[in-house]
Amino acid sequence: MKKQNQIKKSMEFRKYYLSEFQFHDGEAFITFNIVAIDTRKNEITVAISDRGRISVTTYDLLTDSNGSFYFEYGINYEKINVNDFEGVK
After folding, report:
1. Residue 45 buriedness (CB in 10 A; 0-12 / 13-18 / 19+)
2. Maximum distance among all alpha carbons in the chain?
3. Where are the beta strands (DSSP E) in 1-89?
4. More confident residue, 10 or 28
5. How far apart are CA 22 and CA 25, in angstroms?
6. How far is CA 1 from the centre of its chain?
7. What does pTM read for this prediction?
8. Taking Cα atoms as reference points, which of 58, 86, 53 lies closest to residue 72?
9. Residues linked to residue 10 through DSSP beta bridges, in sequence order
10. d(CA 80, CA 70)
11. Residue 72: what pLDDT?
12. Residue 9, helix vs strand vs coil
């Protein structure tokens, strides 16, 4: 059963592939694009565009008390919710 649940989660996250989210850090907008979500390792990989620099980074995929997935970004551990990402058209 556990493997079947992981497969369902994995299929569920396909809709987020390359989805985008913009976060304002107080000075500038930072753009995140989802590259991959690995539910077995509880990791999310995102491409980050920050002040003209692009990087690809993997973060721990966490779950809050509502069951929503998120990761923490930056020195202030800003909570970036996966449900806030939108498809790019």
Report:
1. middle
2. 47
3. 20-24, 29-38, 43-50, 53-60, 62-63, 69-73, 78-81
4. 28
5. 10
6. 26
7. 0.78
8. 58
9. none
10. 5
11. 97
12. helix
CB 37 within 8 A of CB 55: no
> Environment class of residue 58 by beta-carbon count within 10 Å: exposed (0-12), middle (13-18) or buried (19+)?
middle
Residue type, 15: K
Cβ-based burial of 69 (10 A; exposed 0-12, middle 13-18, buried ≥19): buried
Token pair, residue 46, equals 């995102």
Contact 26, 41 (CB under 8 A): no
65-84 average pLDDT score: 92
Distance CA 5, CA 30 (A): 33
Give the full edge-to-edge strand order of the sheet including 43-50: 20-24, 29-38, 43-50, 53-60
Burial of 46 (0-12, 13-18, 19+ CB in 10 A): buried
